Amino acid sequence: MANEPLIGERLKTELSALYRSPDRHYHGLAHIAALLALLDEHRAEFADPEAVEAAIWFHDAIYDSRRSDNEARSAALAADKLSRADPERLPRILAMIEATATHALPGLAGKAKHDAAFFLDMDLAILGTEPTAFDAYEAAVRREYAWVEEAAWRSGRAAVLQRFLARPAIFHTHTFRQRYEQMARANIARSLAALLA
Asked: What is the pLDDT of residues 164-196, one digit of tens each?
């Protein structure tokens, strides 16, 4: 059992079915694939890449745009599925998943905190992509919230984006600040201008 991966093929198949839900326009399998690609690209920088991979697979497993407890519910699903596989690493995996609710660093120490910082930065990397990719992301998220009336969407989305801009740095790690911070701030400012127009 110790040699089995945390996220085996059977579990990937099970989770993939959740990510294929027709109401997911951004928080689907393409998002997971993008994060897994970033994990591979930065694998040498992680102390426990397998735990980060587990957090990636589970962090949006439960996603309902009408609820505010998706991260907690996703963490609960991870706890249920992984508790027997690796109870020792489970707390830091759950902490990473739950931290995606605010994208603030969870109360972890040392290498686990370092890994969490990279994981959260990967989840936000879309903010610092080229404008066309960022605009496609924004449009996809809007489709996930199609039930929200336009004025309420504009004010709610603007509040989320303003919180990111108000942070001293959007990204926790030097690596991601160097690569994405400037473009992320430009994209967010442009989106805010449109939302508030």
From this structure: 999 999 999 999 999 999 999 999 999 999 999
Residue 103 φ/ψ region, left for φ over 0, alpha for ψ in the -120 to 50 degree band, beta for the rest: left
- Note whether 175 and 42 are within 8 A (CB): yes
Domains, the chain, with CATH or none:
9-196 (1.10.3210)
Please report, for residues 39, 56, 87, 167, the alpha-carbon distance to residue 160 in angstroms, rounded to integers and kept in the order given.
Answer: 26, 22, 34, 12
Amino acid present at 183? M
What is the Cα–Cα distance from 47 to 70, expressed in whole angstroms? 27
Token pair in block for residue 98: 């739950």
Instruction: Classify residue 126 by its DSSP letter.
Output: G
Reading the block at residue 26, the tokens are 């951004």
* Angstrom distances, CA of residue 39 to CA of 55, 109, 175, 176, 185: 11, 20, 13, 13, 23
Residue type, 130: E
pLDDT in tens, 66-100: 999 999 999 999 999 998 888 889 999 999 999 99
